[in-house]
Give the backbone structure.
Amino acid sequence: MKHEVVVPSPGESINEVFIGVWQKKSGDLVKKDEVLVDMETQKTSFDLQAEYSGKLEVLKPERETKVKPGEVIAIIDDAYAQEAQGTGSSSVKSEPVKASPLEFQPTKVMTETLLSPAARKIAAEKNLDASTVQGSGKDGRVMKEDVMAAEARPAQPSLKLVSSAPAPAAAPTAAPAPKIEYHIDVARGERVQPATRIRRQIAQNLVTAQHTAAILTTFNECDMSQVLEYRKKHKEGFKAKHGVNLGIVSFFALASVRALKEFPMVNATFTGEDIISRDFVDLSIAVSTEAGLVVPVIRNADKMGLVEIEKKLAELGEKARLRKLSIPEMTGGTFTISNGGVFGSLLSTPILNMPQSAILGLHKTQERPVVVDHQVVIRPMMYLALSYDHRLIDGREAVTFLIRVKEGIEDLAKIINEKEII
């Protein structure tokens, strides 16, 4: 029997799906659950796996071919299933980088060559020496775009790339934006490579936020002593009882939910004409992956305790690492937390995750001298940053909201019930 390989529905907010690179070719014998092709959308990339074993017939070409959800892109003939089960996988997959997306800790995985599966496939097809390709991915990992750029690199010492810069918003009578010329010096190591669709969408979202919202950032700092002491005391018992690690982000999630209940406008959205308010909190957690920034959502975070949030963070983090996050799991958040502190950031101004109205930025915990009860003491301190849409949220609300987050972190009794945890 022949089975259709169809494009899965990526969600209501996604209207474009593109075929990246086929990991298997027409005539290949494939096993169930083997990766067939890399797929890309404006928000994420994902692997499409075989649902049956058999012989593959590819119907749609690779390299950014636009397809629609439900469209048939290949056929698997299970008449060859037994033969396929007796063969090894013809695609070589590199071991995934085991980074903790929720804490952003970069961890190198030493392999013979740091190649993504798609990059390895293209390099083999084009007979390219991957060791000569400089990777742009995490830890120098060679991505498919790097190999494609190396393949397209001309033999002459330099080339001239002319691109039209997007015209800024202006009155209808404004003159068109001038063309900008880019001179690429290949001999000295400059190169051109296409940006992934995720990177293009990230860029578009950030520019939209800057051009649409009236973004203002307020800062504060919090004493992390109670959080660090609590984690030190309960870390092992928490992992043994609940099967997940006890991190930092979960405490800020609870503190943010508490503050959002007091200041619901921070959890609202301004459309330009109307205000969309909510009786729930869908908390977005910014996650850095090899493919780019993704923001999975914890639904109904306001109804969760510390254990439930940690379990959900672990689940979403694993899916992000394996590129298995669904579009619904990354859309519809109402407030975002971004933790740049694990990269060493001491202070930053996060940009709104539109159409949300606020984002909380966490930073590096650092021991600093502070004054407590008229005495100078050393405490582990963290700077907090709240960027917000000033069109909707007034300064008093934003400042007080951040103070409530600070209070929850410095007095854990306000946000957690220890009896429910240990």
In short: The chain has three domains: 2-85, 92-165+178-194, 201-420.
